[in-house]
Amino acid sequence: MDQRLFVKGNEAxxxxxxxxxxxxxxxxPITPQSDIPEFTARELPRLGGTFIQAESEIAAxxxxxxxxxxxxxxxxxxxxxGISLKQEGLSYMAGSELPGLVVNICRSGPGLxxxxxxxxxxxxxxxxxxxxxxxxxVLAPHSVQEMYDLALLAFDLSDRYRIPAMLLGxxxxxxxxxxxIPHPRAQVELPPKDWAVRGKQEGAPQRVVKSLYLGDxxxxxxxxxxxxxxxxxxxxxxxxxxxxxxxxxxxxxxFGITARIAKSAVxxxxxxxxxxxxxxxxxLFPFPRxxxxxxxxxxxxxxxxxxxxxxxxxxxxxxxxxxxxVYFYGRPPGAGSLPTPEEFAEQIARYCGGxx
Amino acid sequence: xSQVEIPVFTAPRSLKPVVTHFCPGCQHGTVHxxxxxALDHFAVQERTIGVASVGCSVFLYEYFAIDVVESPHGRAxxxxxxxxxxxxxxxxxxxxxxxDLAAIGTSxxxxxxxxxxxxxxxxxxxxxxxxxxxxxxxxxxxGQQTSTSPYGRDPANDGSPIRMAxxxxxxxxxxxxxxxxxxxxxxxxxxxxVIREAFATQIQARGFxxxxxxxxxxxxxxMNPVQANQRIAAELIPCFPLGTFKKIESQS
Lengths: 356, 252
Ligand SMILES: Cc1ncc(C[n+]2csc(CCOP(=O)(O)OP(=O)(O)O)c2C)c(N)n1
Ligand code: SF4
Ligand SMILES: [Mg+2]
Known about the structure:
The structure holds 2 protein chains of 2 kinds. Chain A is an alpha/beta fold. Chain A folds into 2 domains: about 5-180, Rossmann fold (3-Layer(aba) Sandwich); about 240-350, Rossmann fold, CATH 3.40.50.920. Chain A has helices spanning about 10-20, 35-45, 55-70, 80-85, 85-95, 120-125, 145-160, 170-175, 220-235, 255-270, 290-295, 310-320, 340-350, and strands at about 5-10, 25, 50-55, 75-80, 100-105, 135-140, 165-170, 175-180, 210, 240-245, 250-255, 275-280, 285, 300-305, 325-330. In chain A, the strands form 3 sheets. In chain A, strands 3-2-4-5-7-6-13 form a 7-stranded mixed β-sheet, sandwiched between helices. A 5-stranded mixed β-sheet of chain A has the order 10-12-11-14-15, sandwiched between helices. Chain A has a two-stranded antiparallel sheet with strand order 1-8. In chain A, helix 12 links the parallel strand 14 (about 300-305) and strand 15. The longest helix of chain A is centred in the middle third of the chain and has 19 residues, at about 220-235. Chain B is an alpha/beta fold. Chain B contains 10 helices and 9 strands. Chain B has a 7-stranded mixed β-sheet with strand order 2-1-3-4-8-7-9, with helices on both faces. Chain B has a two-stranded antiparallel ribbon with strand order 5-6. In chain B, strand 1 (about 50), helix 2 and strand 2 (about 65-70) form a beta-alpha-beta unit. In chain B, helix 1 packs across helix 8 (about 185-205) and helix 4 crosses helix 5. At the A-B interface, helix 3, helix 5 and strand 9 of A face strand 1, strand 2, helix 3 and helix 5 of B.
């Protein structure tokens, strides 16, 4: 029988990473994600792995860069202010085509902000974050189980495409406890890491992990290569969850914790007779543009709910069929600002024609 | 009787036979050679990974025939930590300038040393930001004019030159720390010996080793190569004394 555990989201993501074969964790304490370094500090030494509490988030992301350059599965985790500090390193990793996992258990901001759940770092996560016009693979778990599952998926995608991956969570997903059924990693065939440094063998070509391309036209070609890889991600690796999309007059969309609340709201509204469906992006980059386009060929109204003042809604607007209308409902994060299902249900009733 | 030519001096195997981009009289090239000679001496070229920093030495991989990882400005000791922890049986070194190591990367170098990472750090102190055009560095001498200290470095406003070799020697994790110069044949031979010792520290599993090399930047000092070389003994060594500040023989 499958083992069933009752764990926090933060523990689940760490367990998923270890199941993915990650044996290197580098991080710096920050609430609400410190359960991740606490878990890996305990478990990694037992597995022969390495845990380093770095002197800063900057050092941590660069340690990850170094371990990844050697071909190892490695991770770091932090929360919003710490993720800001990692942006330079992420840009270098993206430019150097290095895989790796960064878990971002978002908290509110700007500045020091608070430890409340937040989705205000959507732009930072999906639009590049650091300098130079790169992308990360960004996945948004909405349950403890998904924290585990998406950690496994993130490592596979990151290795396959040589693009750093981010799990974009929040303090509720990180801190809440739910049932988790752990499972081993899927046996997928991944390209060999024939680019990793290892000490140049006699007669073998030199291996260099770098982002610097100074020759005439080299950097432009490098950027086109990266761009093509992002396009490949969009073509092959978008992930989303749909609910009652067949007959919906209104499509609700949300990610992460907000999607969790939206699911309850959609259930309540359905019970009240509203024809409402849900489209939950699981991959935020690549964004499930085609799914939005297809659904909105029929469903002409979309309500985007977020725990911010409107970020993903921009990608939704860019994705829907031309004649679809997109509405936004959200609140900036802060203590006590987590919306309730009733609150979303009210919005659904407002936009849904033909109330029961 | 036919004559046999026996080469008594050859290029190090660990260096590529290429022309460098360094300015005339720049001592980065000399330091590259000494590092390569050390790798040859221990026959570790094949299991060495270099970590390049950002500065005039950024093209480490163009000159060394070894695997290399590039790091962001100042972060080489953190990158090298990740490399060494992933591949503990490899020889890992960073090569950093004074802006890179003693300004933006102060935190990373201090904590890599303090953790006692088994790394060799080659620190080239030319008292200026060479690559970006000769701005003031934390190692710039009091009174030294640079493009951002046009009236001379004023300790009251800018602080005084930072002595990294002495500073790092204070840390328990540091097993070897020394300062050398390459301005005379005697100093070059000494520097070669010290750099070998810094690699021996790592190879013999003794831990973190640091070598500061005083070096010229004729271009940004506004001097010709001979004048720049003379400035090392006249101005730099009095402020940055040569010597070994720490050497622990036992394994860590
Ligand atoms: C984050 C960041 N800030 C600034 C720079 C610009 N920069 C490149 S090299 C350098 C200083 C190099 O000086 P040093 O480390 O002393 O090396 P040198 O060229 O003198 O050998 C600076 C400030 C950069 N590349 N990245
Ligand atoms: S600018 Fe200075 S440090 Fe850079 S190559 Fe020229 S002389 Fe050397
Ligand atoms: Mg310098």
